[in-house]
Amino acid sequence: KGLKSLKDVYKDNFLTGTAISLRDLEGVRFELLKKHFNAVTAENAMKPSELQREKGNFTFDGADRLVNAAISAGMKVHGHTLVWHQQTPAWMNIKLDSGGNIVYLSREEALGNMRNHIRTVIEHFGDKVISWDVVNEAMSDNPSNPSDWRGSLRKSPWYYAIGEDYVEQAFLAAREVLDEHPEWDIKLYYNDYNLDNQNKALAVYNMVRELNEKYQKTHPGKLLIDGIGMQGHYSVNTNPKNVELSLKRFTELGVEVSISELDIRAGSNYQLTEKEANAQAYLYAQLFKIFREYSDSIARVTFWGMDDGTSWRAEESPLLFDRTLKAKPAYYAVADPDEFI
Ligand code: G3I
């Protein structure tokens, strides 16, 4: 078909990626994947509950199939995710006490569970991945005081079991493993959503800046956190100016930025009116003009899926291809943003 390849359109700007699952590794889906994308993120297969559902029993088969297929097709793989409060087995943070009550593990136990998961998983995949979401979605949605970012980490059981330094501890654990493998070049990311909200963006900015400044006191010139993943789960009401403001702010930190989970909710009930389809396309075009402008600090732009039919938000038709894998106006807007604006 005459469609431009998105990875070719943006090859001088950033990696163009998509979330994938095992179903994407065959037939027309794999053809679409190979045509447009040069980077992939496992949508679910590399999450804590998929890799270590029971303590000490690591199950890598599904993830290995995804990673090996992507690499054989010449794609880069981003690892998602090592530490999160969702899709994470309860045993990592809590247990039943003698009276049968649910209690948090001690700091020592929970830290041991976190460090073992991080070490085992990073060592398993090695430099088959170019980067990891070491911690995902730790920051509360609208921090009342962005300078007190530690006080905004309370949404995760890791916070209550380990303490307010659990994010720092996760990155220190990952960094320790990478320091044992200087031949690898793997970037360590903090990944979160709603970072177009300026309170949350400022809280994340403060956390990354403070943790990197503290780390550099003992490791001059090195970073603890290499990158920030802005998830990009947007809607047609998202203001691209806020996205740009946050991109600009994160760029000042000297870390790389990735748009890690881009989709734009536009419709309802699994369909888009023509007006909704055009509004969605227009915002995609606006965003890609901004991403192109910031491509010096953007490493990767990853769509959270290829087509509406398999999107986690299918009923809102957020992606570039429809459920018959036909290109939507949104695809043409990304392939040629200047045509749209
Ligand atoms: O694998 C089981 C299957 O065995 C079972 O039959 C089926 C029905 O219960 O569930 C399947 O697991 C589902 C899994 O996706 C794999 O399809 C889970 O129920 C479902 O909750 C899970 O949803 C994923 C969601 O994360 C869970 O938090 C979505 O696919 C995935 O797109 C979404 O991705 C997250 C990112 O990781 C982090 N950022 C937000 C983003 C959207 O929530």
UniProtKB/TrEMBL annotation:
Keywords recorded for this protein, A-Z: Carbohydrate metabolism, Glycosidase, Hydrolase, Polysaccharide degradation, Repeat, Signal, Xylan degradation
Active-site residues, record numbering mapped to chain: 261 (nucleophile)
GO molecular function, one term: carbohydrate binding
The protein's name in its UniProt record: Beta-xylanase
Entry keyword annotation includes Metal-binding: no
Family: Belongs to the glycosyl hydrolase 10 (cellulase F) family.
GH10 domain location: 1-337
GO biological process, one term: xylan catabolic process
